[in-house]
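User: Hi! I'm working on a homework problem where we have to compare a predicted structure to a textbook description. Could you give me the structure for the chain below?
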Amino acid sequence: METLKQYLIPYLLSNIIFGLSIVAALKKPMVCRVFFATFFLWACYINSVTAIATPRVYLTYARLNALPFYSNFITGFFSQHITLFVLMIAAGQLSIACGLVLNKKLTKFACLGGIIFGMSIAPLGIGSAFPATISMAVAFYILSTRYKHNYIWKWKQYATPSNKIKTYGI
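Assistant: Happy to help. Predicted structure tokens:
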């Protein structure tokens, strides 16, 4: 509980923002795509720089998590290969950002990557602002199943009903 008090403001902000991403995915999918693309590009940059400059900072996640498996992994194998692991995560984040900017299958793959990412870091608990990552995964799911995607610079693509995927009552 003491840890939550220490991170209360960023924790609450993350949960509000990613909760709103669900609403954006439903009502303003372009806003959601731009937000996620920007967020994942920013996360890629921060993680890359941090992994190279001060990789040991990632060991603090071992005390913030909800599952002992994650804590043991972080203090064990991960701690010996921090830079490699975090740079691989950053590459995935860059792939998600790029896929969201592009169209069709690439956007679908980016959404799948966002779902997997959100679910994978959820067990970090406070360290991932759980349940914000679940909200993010839900927003990615909505984006991937509800719309046909074109390039992100085609701003009016979601204005037409023909862009929605037939969900048959869902």
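For your comparison, note the following. The chain has a mean pLDDT of 90. Helices lie at 2-6, 8-27, 29-53, 68-80, 82-101, 104-121, 132-146. Good luck with the assignment!
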